[in-house]
Amino acid sequence: MLKKRIIAVVIVKDDIVVQSIGFRKYLPIGKPEIALEFLTSWGIDEIVYLDISATNNQKQPNYDLIRKSAKKCYVPLTVGGGIRRMDQVHELMSAGADKVSLNHIAYNEISFVKEVALAYGNQCVVASIDVTKTPSGYQVYDYTKKQVIRMDPADYANRLANNGAGEIFLNSVDRDGTYLGYDLDLIESVTNSVHIPVICCGGAKNASDMVHVFSKTNVSAAAASNFFHFTEHSVNVSKSIVYKNGNIRLETYANYSENTFDSDMRLTKKDDKILEEMLFLRIEKETI
């Protein structure tokens, strides 16, 4: 059985990592290179780097910033935002990207998905779908125009898969930044319609939401952005909790197997006697 993946999403707006809330409100966090170094060092499986201002501002990807950030990243890196031409894909691959995320260009020119897949292989193409729920059901959402596109996300995902996409990155606009958990109905409808891996995103509050989505759907990876930046040891703790309940990789020394967690999935304090004994433990610095 293939192992499930935990993926961190780094949302970049005007060259700064931001916290996204409902695709409308953005709060600054810090530099992309620092975020990627932190996430990598704590054992994240993959990183998705999304420049949300590039397409809106008709700008190219910031290759220098991506190159600088990629030097701090030692896990598979997907880069999206501002991609409209093959020469940009070539430059991103040279800058350190392992995959590219195609969103706006995909529903305007789906043949471009096939073109990238033919050049680099299906495994390098991550087709990104933003979705919102309307009175008539789930619909694809255009984040540049802030409006609905009359396309069923499950049908659209199937078209993308048939045109060369190797993975689907499924993002719930309604759940973005809400901490209400993943939209299981949306995820199930898309995973049941395609033969390729689906990454779900939007709404995760903590690792319990990841455990829940893995147990209730056939999703291949659970992605999150905001809570990874604001919770101490967030990656290790999340992976340790999911590891106890599912089939994922856990390769770091700090696996928290003997720890307990509170209702918000934060580490609880060990007994003072145990902490005293730990003072005499020698732990070699690990390299991930």
From TrEMBL:
One Pfam family named in its UniProt record: His_biosynth
Record Gene3D superfamilies: Aldolase class I
SUPFAM superfamilies: Ribulose-phoshate binding barrel (SSF51366)
MF terms in GO: imidazoleglycerol-phosphate synthase activity
Single biological process term from Gene Ontology: L-histidine biosynthetic process
Keywords from the named record: Amino-acid biosynthesis, Histidine biosynthesis
Keyword Amino-acid biosynthesis: yes
Biochemical pathway: Amino-acid biosynthesis
Presence of keyword Amino-acid biosynthesis: yes
Family the UniProt entry places it in: Belongs to the HisA/HisF family.
PANTHER family attached to this UniProt entry: IMIDAZOLE GLYCEROL PHOSPHATE SYNTHASE HISHF, IMIDAZOLE GLYCEROL PHOSPHATE SYNTHASE SUBUNIT HISF/H IGP SYNTHASE SUBUNIT HISF/H
Protein name in the entry: Putative imidazoleglycerol phosphate synthase, cyclase subunit
